[in-house]
């Protein structure tokens, strides 16, 4: 395939993505009922929460890919791990951006140290750290090893981090509570958005994976050139 | 004793070893020659188990090689680095390694080892005060403390003065007589020729020349070696 | 196996006691952190007592990271890591020996930094000491359990020691949160029963990451 080109499956998936995103936008902005206290601002919730859930899915994929890499030492798994981590960071960034946008008008502050936001921040930092480890390891094989190890550590750490922050918040309660409460009428919109985000996730991860595989091929070609000199 | 098939090692785009095949019989003494960066160090590191090959295999054929740990007992590796702790004394250094290798670690035994490499009387000084040559001697004691069957040496005469060189030549010759298998990377053609049975040249990641000492003179070997490395 | 872990631990201890390189740096840095916080929090001088646990553990964390940084950098110096790798021992044993050494150094630094904090913050603690010792110990073990592994990871990268704090602090956050809380509970004389949860979380963290690091360590040392 030429660079920029897409396979048949990817093209199909892109169409599917457009449809599901359109549906999500419709459900979130039109179909879903308006919330009593916050009004239309609350609609950001339909993107904030699915972004968080999809981010976590990405991190789970990274965890499994890291484990498989250590078991098989096949770079295919490393490419998957990297793709998942990068996209996970993107989705977590979305969470960290939409959170303050929501909080400012409602609570008059940009940041609330709520459990979800704080945990998202720490998780974000953990996976940015993962990307830093990759960035600063020059040799591709060693890079794959180091990041697989750190990916496993980060994922095992995540629940403990979440639990610790939850408990800490319980001890030091904040007047600002993030509402997660859902009336049944809002659920269809939430689930549609979640599906749309998962579709986006799969599309992005495929593209990123393809990019990384191409990078690996370049490495192989450079090696052949280098050896024949 | 040692079998190598299709060994390859890459570091990103750089190829250190391309497609190396080799068979080493027990008791053979091989001198490895090659330009800087030809892959000698990488090769020895893979044999020592410190580096994993990108493809291909290297293994030790022996009834004693049942697990990675039993394999390591059979190997002694002396590299560019001395692997000795500068802030400990010679005795403490050896005691540390002896303990971790389940060897007798009594002062008496270790003092004998220290004396064997010509450092008699210097066992309780911190190694930081040692000259490079003395450190190298201690490194030799450390690397071969467990009397391994296979000796892997990477430029072992670096840093040794005339006396040290003579000492180590004798040491290696004695080990060879005892039936040890040796692979030694070396620059000095004369020295390598003197000690080894078999001469190998690694060039561009493969074995470019493989001759026995008996088959040619030192001058003939040097001619062939020059011819190989000058071909660019 | 225990003997070998002890041998590695003892070797690191011996070298450190002789040179005192790490310990001096750790102590000094920890005390510098205390002093900086004193200036930083001047505006809330009365409240500094309640900030003491946080300040303490910040100082501990920075000092600990310094010690961890030196842990593998020193081995790389003379190719000593290679020597360790040639030994017929489980790689995890190297991890355990080093982790214990790191923990002991960190605890020595903590003890001294703590004494300085008593002076700087005018604290009086006598009967609290055994509880504090417990919290400090478990917190330190947890920190070094994951820190030793990550130190080995970062020493293999281009940024070496600079990378370690970046990857260690987010990972060790549960230890820091719980340790600060527990220390606060003790220093404020609150209900000691509530110590149970943070100590449990810290212990779980230590066991989980101690085991995980033990298993993953050999991958980090591969080339």
Explain what the structure shows:
- The complex is a heterotrimer of chains A (about 230), B (about 230) and C (about 220).
- With about 230 residues, chain A is an all-alpha fold.
- Chain A has one domain (about 10-30, about 40-175, about 185-230).
- Helix content of chain A is about 80%, strand content about 0%.
- In chain A, helix 1 packs antiparallel against helix 6 (about 185-230), helix 2 (about 45-70) runs parallel beside helix 6 (about 185-230) and helix 4 (about 115-135) runs antiparallel to helix 5 (about 140-170).
- Chain B is of the alpha/beta class and about 230 residues long.
- Chain B has 2 domains: about 1-60 and about 150-160 and about 165-230, 3-Layer(aba) Sandwich (Rossmann fold), CATH 3.40.50; about 80-145.
- Helix content of chain B is about 35%, strand content about 25%.
- Chain B contains 8 helices and 9 strands.
- In chain B, the strands form 2 sheets. Chain B has a 6-stranded mixed β-sheet with strand order 5-6-7-3-8-9, with helices on both faces. Chain B has a 3-stranded antiparallel β-sheet with strand order 2-1-4, with helices on one face.
- The two termini of chain B are about 35 Å apart.
- Chain C is mainly alpha-helical.
- Chain C has one domain (about 1-220).
- Chain C has 9 helices and no strands.
- Chain C is globular.
- The two termini of chain C are about 25 Å apart.
- The model of chain C has no long low-confidence stretch (mean pLDDT about 90).
- Chains A and C meet through helix 4 and helix 5 of A and helix 6, helix 7, helix 8 and helix 9 of C.
In a nutshell, what does this entry contain?
The complex is a heterotrimer of chains A (229), B (232) and C (223). Chain B is an alpha/beta fold.
């Amino acid at each position: 395939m030429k660079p920029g080109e897409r396979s048949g499956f990817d093209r199909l998936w892109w169409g599917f993505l457009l449809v599901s995103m359109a549906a999500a936008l419709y459900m979130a902005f039109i179909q879903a009922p308006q919330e009593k206290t916050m009004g239309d601002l609350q609609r950001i919730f339909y993107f904030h929460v699915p972004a968080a859930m999809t981010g976590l899915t990405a991190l789970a994929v990274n965890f499994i890919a890291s484990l498989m890499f250590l078991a098989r030492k096949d770079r295919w798994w490393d490419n998957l791990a990297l793709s998942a981590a990068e996209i996970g960071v993107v989705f977590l960034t979305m969470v960290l951006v939409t959170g303050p946008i929501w909080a400012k008008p409602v609570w008059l502050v940009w940041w609330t140290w709520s459990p979800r936001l704080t945990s998202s921040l720490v998780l974000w930092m953990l996976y940015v750290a993962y990307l830093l480890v990759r960035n600063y390891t020059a040799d591709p094989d060693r890079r794959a090893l180091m990041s697989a190890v750190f990916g496993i550590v980060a994922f095992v750490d995540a629940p403990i981090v979440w639990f610790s922050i939850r408990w800490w918040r319980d001890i030091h309660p904040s007047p600002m509570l993030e509402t997660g409460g859902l009336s049944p009428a809002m659920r269809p919109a939430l689930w549609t958005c979640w599906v749309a985000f998962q579709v986006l996730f799969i599309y992005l991860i495929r593209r990123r994976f393809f990019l990384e595989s191409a990078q690996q091929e370049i490495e192989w070609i450079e090696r052949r050139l280098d050896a024949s000199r | 004793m040692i079998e190598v098939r299709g060994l390859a090692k890459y570091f990103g785009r750089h190829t250190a070893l391309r497609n190396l095949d080799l068979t080493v019989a027990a008791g053979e003494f091989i001198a490895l020659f090659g330009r800087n960066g030809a892959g000698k160090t990488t090769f020895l590191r893979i044999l020592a188990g410190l580096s994993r090959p990108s493809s291909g295999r290297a293994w030790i054929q022996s009834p004693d090689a049942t697990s990675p740990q039993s394999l390591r007992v059979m190997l002694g590796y002396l590299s560019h680095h001395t692997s000795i702790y500068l802030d400990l004394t010679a005795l403490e250094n050896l005691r540390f390694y002896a303990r971790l290798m389940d060897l007798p670690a009594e002062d008496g035994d270790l003092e004998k080892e220290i004396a064997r490499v010509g450092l008699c009387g210097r066992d309780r000084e911190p190694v930081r005060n040692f000259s490079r040559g003395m450190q190298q001697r201690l490194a030799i004691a450390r690397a071969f403390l467990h009397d391994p069957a296979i000796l892997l040496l990477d430029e072992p005469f670096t840093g040794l003065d005339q006396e040290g060189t003579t000492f180590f030549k004798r040491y290696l010759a004695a080990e060879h007589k005892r039936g040890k298998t040796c692979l030694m990377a070396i620059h000095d053609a004369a020295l390598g020729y003197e000690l080894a049975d078999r001469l190998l040249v690694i060039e561009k990641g493969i074995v470019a020349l493989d001759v026995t000492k008996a088959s040619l003179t030192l001058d003939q070997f040097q001619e062939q070696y020059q011819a190989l490395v000058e071909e660019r | 196996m225990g003997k070998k872990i002890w041998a590695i631990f003892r070797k690191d201890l011996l070298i450190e006691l002789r040179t005192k390189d790490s310990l001096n740096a750790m102590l000094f840095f920890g005390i510098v952190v205390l002093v900086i916080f004193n200036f930083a929090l001047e505006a809330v001088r009365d409240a500094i007592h309640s900030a003491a646990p946080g300040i303490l553990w910040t100082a501990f964390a920075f000092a600990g990271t310094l010690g961890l940084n030196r842990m593998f950098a020193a081995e790389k110096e003379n190719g000593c890591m290679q020597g360790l790798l040639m030994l017929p021992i489980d790689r995890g044993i190297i991890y355990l020996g080093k982790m214990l050494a790191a923990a002991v150094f960190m605890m020595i630094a903590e003890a001294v930094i703590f004494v300085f904090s008593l002076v700087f913050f005018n604290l009086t603690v006598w009967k609290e000491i055994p509880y504090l010792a417990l919290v400090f110990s478990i917190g330190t073990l947890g920190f070094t359990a994951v820190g030793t592994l990550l130190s080995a990871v970062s020493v293999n990268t281009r940024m070496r020691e600079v990378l370690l704090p970046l990857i260690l602090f987010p990972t060790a956050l549960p230890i820091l949160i719980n340790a600060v809380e527990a220390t606060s509970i003790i220093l404020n004389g609150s209900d000691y029963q509530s110590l149970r949860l943070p100590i449990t979380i810290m212990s779980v963290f230590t066991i989980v990451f101690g085991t995980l690091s033990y298993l993953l360590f050999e991958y980090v040392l591969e080339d």
